[in-house]
Sequence to fold (415 residues):
Amino acid sequence: MTAPLSFDDETLAAYVDGALDSATRALVETAAGADADLAARLKAQQDLKALLIDHYGRVAKEPLPERLLRTIRDGAPPSAEVVYLTAGGTSSAKRSFRLPVWAGMAACLVMGLAIGRLALPASTGLNGEAGEALVARGALARALDSQAAADSSGAIRIGLTFRDHDGAYCRTFAPNGREGLAGVACRDANVWRLRVASPIATETGAAYRTAGSETPPAVLSAVDALIDGAPLDAEGERKAIAHDWRRPR
Amino acid sequence: MDAFQSELVAHAPRLRRMARALVRDPADADDLTQLTLERALLRRDQWRPETRLDSWMFRIMKNAWIDEARRRSRWSKVTAAPEQAETAADPASATLDSRLSLSAVERAMAALPDEQRIAVALVLIEGLSYEEAAAVLETPIGTVTSRLSRGRAALQAALIQEGARP
Fold:
């Protein structure tokens, strides 16, 4: 007589998951046939899986809610204020974002608002040449280059610093005053290219403001879409500044 | 609707199921599904047709799920007064008590640590292989199997305690 084979729960689970090779599978089946205790443990694993499949399977059988269907049909996020300011030029042709059809139109609108009506401080110096991603200049570039998030003394506040899916550093910025342009800029070679920009509302334009936050939803969404991993902490930010935003190996 | 969008429609019911396993509240789960679909549409040129669309979507969902949890605490840190920043805790904990109508299964799932819950959802509910789940989670297979083991044991214990199982 050989001693009965014993299997740990992980092996029994692997059996249930179909992850065992056929020889081990046969061994488990033979042993379970001869050992009521093993058979009960195996059944407990099978029951657990069946219970979960049954419970959550109902969700998969429900008709698709209309808003999800609409999301797929529309093919892009419905939030029209999200403007991805990627260039049509060669340097960012491999950017991960598809430019929604309406983006060009919306970009004109937002930049018109920003430069025309909301009148950014001249020193911020956004440069909006057609066909190129907007590059931060002047005070904005200086803040992006060297200002820590904790520093709120200047005309521009820096919010989050994070890395995007290509590994580039990105930072959110916002005006320190009541109005101006908030956005996300990402480091590309030696410049900061704006990936999204959105006006900060004054009281008359409160639609842009969410409760408890002056960060426009477009900027929040852009960070969500761009960010890879966690944002940098103060120490990470300090190091990135010290290394002139060169990507770590 | 093009072929990619049709594929999304076909996969959306499974995405919803996955989201429901991760997030207890049905409306929150559909929000997560919607965010996942939006991101998939934005990044559709990153999907390689020779790879499985469902695995790719699950990875997007996993990242969206993690980002969303981070985002809530992150933005409260950015916008909250400095002395409040440290209290920006896991948003999930705040809603635990308010879900009285949850079934025993959902309660047991909700009690799992996130990384065990997602491993259980991918393998037990969605039927992914260990290799596929490891690829979605971007972890070694051994990590997936050990999270599965702990998750299963915790689920068994919780369901027995709930009287949902003999």
Q: What stands out?
A: Chain B has nine helices and no strands. The CA atoms of residues 108 and 155 of chain B lie 6 Å apart.
